[in-house]
Structures are given as C-alpha cells and as structure tokens.
Amino acid sequence: MAAAAGGDSDGGSEELVLTPAQLIHSLEQAWLNEKFAPELLESKPEIIECVVEQLDHMEANLKRAKRGDLKISVHHMEIERIRFVLSSYLRCRLVKIEKFFPHILEKEKSRAEGEPSILSPEEFAFAKEYMANTEAYLKNVALKHMPPNLQKVSLLKSVPKPNLDSFVFLRVLERQENILVEPETDEHREYAINLEEGSQHLIRYRTVAPLVASGAVQLI
C-alpha cells in the first residue's frame, strides 16, 4: 500500500491510501493529462514520491526472487514500463517549463495563499534559474550591443503563452451537466452540453480545464 497526501476542507492535509495498482493508475492519468494539455498542470509530488518508493520496493523483491523464476522477467518489464511513464511525465513538465517559463513564474507569483502550486520546489528552482540564464544570455549576446533605449526586453511579452483555445480529446470519468461551450464564430451563441460518463469528445481545452484539474475527465 502507498500513502499520498491530499488536501482537506480545513486547509490541512490527509493521507489517501492507495494500492500499488491505484498508484500506478494515478501516475498514468497525470502523465496523459500533462502530455496532452497545452498548459503546465498542477504538480503531483506526492504521487511521484510514492511511485519512486514503490519502484524501490519492487526492485528489492526482485533481488530476493529465486533465479530462473519466470515471474522475474515479467516484473522487470513492469518496472521498466513504470520508469518510462515516470520519466516521460517529468520530461514533459520540464519541456513546458522551458517553453512557457515567464508565464509560469508570473502565475506562481500571483498565486493566492492556500492555492496549490503548479510547480514542485525543484521545478520552481529550475524555472527561476532558467529565466536568469536566459536573461543573462540575451544581455551578453545582443542587448548590450544595442542602443540604450532598446536594451530592455519583456520576456512575458516575447515568449508565447500556452494556447488554451487548442482542441483536445477527452474521456469523461464523471458525468457533467451544463458545461458552457463558447461559439466558434461571433454569429453563434454560447450553449451548454452534458458530458456522459464514458463518452469521448473533441473540445476546446479552455472549456474543460477545470474538469481536467478536478479529475472529472481524462485527456487521451
């Protein structure tokens, strides 16, 4: 069994006990959502920590297994599969941080007290260092050679924002009613739809972003 921390209604934390299968399923859900969402999603450090502990436990069990046991190769392949998903998830987040770092740091700066961070402490340190290195590089390579009135550049304005109006595929995990959908053109009006459990849709990400965050839908 693995324990992942979760928030309670009083702003504290409580432990959510997951079986190994549930833990890996949570990792896979976080991975697919991160892979297909155009923006950086909330960090899942508790899941990452539990998965790493689970991998260590699985490897320790393999060392104790008898040689020649057919289960060894099966368990070894499962360990490699989990490691691939974990590495891909973390790599995907780093790519987004590098791509949208000014906007991510600005969002982190304006985060309300008690609101969960979208960055882990390690990712926050990486984003700040990446921004400082980018600013230093621009200054040394280009800006210092330009006229004084052109030696300042706003990275917030220069670096594109995540495209929240891009379309995503999703599977509905929990039935949702009266989801407002923005019209494609000015000639049409906003309308509401119901999302039935198990159904799949192609829809604008901005419309379902809160449902992705809550776990009501799964990006695919």
Describe the structure.
With 220 residues, the protein is of the alpha+beta class. Helices cover 51% and strands 17% of the residues. It has helices at 20-36, 45-64, 70-109, 121-141, 155-158, 205-214, and strands spanning 2-7, 13-18, 167-172, 176-181, 191-195, 200-204, 217-219. The strands form three sheets. A three-stranded antiparallel sheet has the order 6-3-7. A two-stranded antiparallel sheet has the order 1-2. A hairpin with a 5-residue loop joins strand 1 (2-7) and strand 2 (13-18). Helix 1 (20-36) packs across helix 2, helix 1 (20-36) packs across helix 3 (70-109) and helix 3 packs across helix 4 (121-141). The chain is flat and about 70 Å long. Residues 7-13 have low confidence and may be disordered.
